Amino acid sequence: MYSEDDLIPISALSDFTFCERRAALHFIERVWEDNVMTAEGSILHERVDDESASEVRGSVRIARSVWLRSLVLGLIGKADMVEFHKTATGGVKLEGVSGLWLPFPVEYKRGYLRHELSFAIQLCAQGICLEEMLGGNIPSGAIFYGKTRRRMDVVFDKALRTETENASRKVHELIASGITPKAEYSKKCKLCSLLNLCMPKVSSRVSNYLMRAMDSASDAKEEAQND
């Protein structure tokens, strides 16, 4: 169980799953930089993140920009949208509203419909927060993709819940360590808003150069000792 002072943003889990160094740059070194993709994502979130824009569509109540917290996982943040579906059994009670309602978190992302583990973990964390706050079991949620304007349902099965719990624990450990992992370039680096600050290609070359230099110095020292 974590204290209020130990809570970390839910979004840190998505960062960490995408790249541990990215998470460290964000939440240890406090480095932030926008690119076209993050700017588009911010615009998309601005459109949905209106706390006053709650609505009712038939048997579905919609709440936007919902604050979430879990002391078990040590997380805090906002859900872009939570749908509450009226149900006969298995739901939760809402203040001032009769009946039972099943929460269904929806996370908004830019881009095209696709499966991304980092997004699924972030969404699952929202579901776990809602379970802790409201009680009951939340079996699934959805990710809405802005480019295609379609959404993908995500089932919060045992495997995904375990991945989410592990990610939360590891992010807490990473932040507590205060150590930023070394940069390692991969194809996904092109998608990262921190590419120009992280400089993974340069960092990798410098690291490799230093390692070779240290190996050469060690070999030279060993040869000198053997002469």
From TrEMBL:
It holds the Pfam family Cas_Cas4. One of its GO terms (molecular function) is exonuclease activity. It comes from the Bacteria. Its EC number is 3.1.12.1. Mg(2+) or Mn(2+) required for ssDNA cleavage activity. The keyword Hydrolase applies. Keywords: Antiviral defense, Exonuclease, Hydrolase, Iron, Iron-sulfur, Manganese, Metal-binding, Nuclease. Transmembrane segments: none annotated. Residues 12-199 form the DUF83 domain. GO terms for biological process: defense response to virus. InterPro entries: Cas4_exonuclease, CRISPR-assoc_prot_Cas4, Dna2/Cas4_DUF83, PDDEXK-like_dom_sf. CRISPR (clustered regularly interspaced short palindromic repeat) is an adaptive immune system that provides protection against mobile genetic elements (viruses, transposable elements and conjugative plasmids). CRISPR clusters contain sequences complementary to antecedent mobile elements and target invading nucleic acids. CRISPR clusters are transcribed and processed into CRISPR RNA (crRNA). Belongs to the CRISPR-associated exonuclease Cas4 family. This is CRISPR-associated exonuclease Cas4. The lineage of its organism: Bacteria, Pseudomonadati, Planctomycetota, Candidatus Brocadiia, Candidatus Brocadiales.
